[in-house]
């Protein structure tokens, strides 16, 4: 059965799941009825990789060897995402249109996944439509009783679908579907008791299903939603009613929220301790706020867990002396100039794009220097990326970035310690 892309696009951008590395190689055979650009996106814990398959033509069968099994995201023409559940056997996928879901041959778990989610989504849409009809008609309308009866039938059918999971024949599909349903259940919480119960369920699910989640973005999704649902609680009402002063109640409500953020971060660190290094887990917690532009909360998590806010990699310092002059670009990535044009002391910070803590450090330093005439230059480990350039939007005054690092003659950039801070004079000499 085929469904339109609109059925899936809301979930599959976030539900991109690849689990359990496997040494055996299997083949994905792609056939298409039109020219299609294909990419496969896979995930490892909190990171993702993109395999560029290239243009697949109708007259050809593209055979892709894969050395893992799990759930991958197939991206068509950089716009249309579809899931692939990869097992131990080869699969055949036919793309009839980029706007319609793929057709699978002898792939029962893929078919189960598409059929289940398609029906589950349609039931959800129907429930929403009936609620909208209720709101439009009003309580006294004679059709309300019929709508209520139909709502009950559909909600029972949807609940029966939830209870049918996990399906022992399709464990991977079940894990993906159950994770999304667990997120949905968290949307309605409003009290601290509901929050704490949902936190427990999130943690239990992550630990129980780690086998499927370890090479996925589902851990990221759970962590992101766990911080999002902190904002659903009415902390003001949770404060002791004997405290009548509104200003004091608000202060205590903010303190309570901060305590919940700290406790939840500690919960993730404790629960995933046996699976992942602490700095890896903490980076996901920090990113839950950083990626939403909530820097204050991201900074606070780093401050509270400084012992784990450590970047992996090298311990080497930049080789000295530095070049007398070198090119830098502004935050737009296009406007270039020479460092000597700055004509002042300057800060140089080594930042690792793969380590959120180094980016946090650099932004915090830049904010400290907002009223200081000395500019901040970012030295990226590896390639200067759009994500790193985006740091500029989080600062009041412009950051500068080094794009061409040839003049530095560094044989192995990964050996550099990040974050590292250097104070340079107007001639790029290191100042003590």
Describe it.
The protein is of the alpha+beta class. The chain is 41% helix and 20% strand. It has helices spanning 5-12, 108-137, 144-163, 171-185, 192-208, 210-213, 218-228, 235-238, 246-271, 278-290, 295-304, 356-368, 386-389; strands spanning 21-32, 36-44, 47-56, 62-68, 70-76, 80-86, 91-95, 103-105, 327-330, 336-338, 346-352, 376-381, 400-401, 420-424. The strands form three sheets. A six-stranded mixed beta sheet has the order 10-9-13-12-11-14, with helices on one face. The longest helix is centred in the N-terminal third of the chain and has 30 residues, at 108-137.
Count of DSSP-assigned helices: 13
First-to-last CA distance: 69 Å
Mean pLDDT: 87
Kindly estimate the percentage of residues that lie in beta strands according to DSSP: 15-25%
Helix content: 40-55%
Largest sheet: 6 strands, mixed
Name the shape in a single word.
globular
Strand order of the largest sheet: 10-9-13-12-11-14
């Amino acid at each position: 059965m085929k469904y339109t892309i609109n059925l899936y696009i809301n979930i599959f951008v976030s539900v991109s799941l690849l689990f359990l590395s496997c040494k055996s190689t299997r083949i994905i055979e792609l056939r298409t009825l039109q020219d299609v650009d294909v990419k496969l996106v896979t995930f490892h814990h909190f990171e993702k990789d993109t395999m560029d398959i290239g243009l697949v033509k109708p007259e050809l069968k593209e055979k892709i060897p894969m050395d893992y099994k799990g759930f991958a995201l197939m991206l068509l023409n950089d716009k249309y995402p579809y899931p692939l559940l990869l097992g131990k056997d080869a699969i055949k996928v036919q793309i009839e249109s980029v706007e319609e879901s793929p057709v699978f041959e002898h792939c029962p778990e893929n078919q189960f996944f598409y059929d289940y989610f398609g029906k589950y989504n349609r039931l959800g849409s129907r429930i929403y439509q009936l609620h909208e009809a209720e709101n439009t008609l009003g309580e006294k309308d004679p059709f309300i009783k019929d709508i209520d009866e139909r709502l009950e039938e559909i909600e029972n059918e949807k609940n029966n679908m939830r209870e049918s999971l996990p399906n022992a024949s399709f464990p991977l599909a079940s894990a993906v579907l159950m994770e999304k349903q667990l997120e949905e259940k968290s949307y309605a919480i409003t009290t601290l008791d509901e929050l704490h119960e949902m936190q427990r369920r999130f943690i239990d699910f992550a630990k129980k299903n780690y086998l499927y989640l370890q090479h996925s973005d589902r851990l990221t999704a759970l962590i992101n939603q766990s911080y999002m649902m902190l904002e659903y609680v009415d902390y003001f009402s949770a404060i002791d009613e004997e405290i009548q002063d509104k200003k004091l109640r608000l202060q205590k409500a903010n303190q309570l929220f901060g305590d919940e953020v700290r406790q939840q971060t500690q919960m993730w660190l404790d629960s995933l301790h046996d699976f992942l290094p602490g700095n890896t887990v903490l980076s996901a917690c920090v990113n839950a706020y950083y990626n939403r532009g909530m820097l204050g909360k991201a900074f606070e998590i780093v401050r509270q867990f400084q012992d784990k806010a450590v970047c992996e990699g090298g311990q080497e310092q930049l080789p000295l002396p530095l070049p007398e002059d070198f090119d830098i670009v502004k935050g737009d990535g296009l406007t270039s100039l020479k460092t000597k044009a700055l004509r002042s002391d300057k800060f140089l910070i080594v930042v690792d794009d793969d380590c959120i803590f180094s980016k946090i450090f650099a932004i915090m330093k830049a904010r400290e220097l907002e009223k200081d005439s000395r500019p901040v230059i970012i030295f990226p480990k590896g390639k200067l990326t759009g994500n790193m350039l985006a740091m500029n939007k989080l600062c009041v005054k412009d950051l500068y970035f080094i794009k061409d690092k040839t003049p530095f003659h560094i044989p192995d950039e990964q050996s550099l310690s990040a974050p590292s801070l250097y104070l340079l004079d107007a001639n790029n000499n290191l100042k003590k």
